[in-house]
Structures are given as C-alpha cells and as structure tokens.
Amino acid sequence: MRTDRATVALPTEDRRRAHVFFTALGFETPGDLADDGVPEPLQVAVNDGLRVMLIPTGGFGWVTAGRTTADRGTAECLISLTADTPAEVDDLLSRVAAAGGEVASPPQQQPWGYTGTFADADGHLWEVCVPPA
Hints:
- By secondary structure, the protein is an alpha/beta fold.
- The chain has a single domain (6-60, 72-130), classed as 2,3-Dihydroxybiphenyl 1,2-Dioxygenase, domain 1 (Roll).
- It is built from 3 helices and 7 strands, in the order βαββαβαβββ.
- The protein has a 4-stranded mixed beta sheet with strand order 4-7-6-5, covered by helices on one side. The protein has a 3-stranded mixed beta sheet with strand order 1-3-2.
- Strand 5 and strand 6 (113-119) form a beta hairpin.
- It is globular and about 40 Å long.
- The termini are far apart.
C-alpha cells in the first residue's frame, strides 16, 4: 500500500461550481475534461501527496455503500492546509470570498497558529493555518 499519497472524497452538488471555485483559489484540477468542460474525476491537487476528489452528490452513495451524505452546514471533517506566512492565510481567505465561498472564521492568532476557516462551494470546511514556530 502506498502511504505517500491520500485522497479525501467529498460530495458536490454542482461539479462546475466546485471547479470554478477551486480554480479561482489557484488550485490545480488535473485530468481530462468531460463533456461538461470539467475534469473527470474532479480532483483538487492540494499538494504532492493529497488530493480532494469531488463526487457528485447523486453518485456519492455508490462509493459509500448507500450511506447518506451529511446535511449542508453539518461538519464531518475539517481539511487543514498549512501556509508559510500570515499573509498567505489572509490572501487565500480574500480569494475565498471573491470566489463565492464563505469565510467561516476570519484569520486570527490562536494558540495553534495564525488561522482562518472557510466553507467551499458545497459547504465543506477548510482551515488554513501557519503553525507556531
């Protein structure tokens, strides 16, 4: 088993909207384009070892053996990104708002680092954080 790569799968209500959102934030979405102009499968390359795959809500049950997805506004997980500087945190959260996302908690200093949290186009929570030195 490879332990140097991981994929987190999340449901998406609208592939095109999710694609536009993540490309507006500067993330790569590798892959061949499907008929709708969006890569299939839709994956967000977070770093060299992590990808987030966005699966249409209607098909998510095929992967989860029929389990229902959580209602919007329910947090099942938090994807955390590491930034090098507070300015990177501020910049990403500014782009989130401009791309139609929601800044769930504004950037601020916390005991675990300079951090802010945002919800993507489907309401999934992402944190971006500069860990303490």
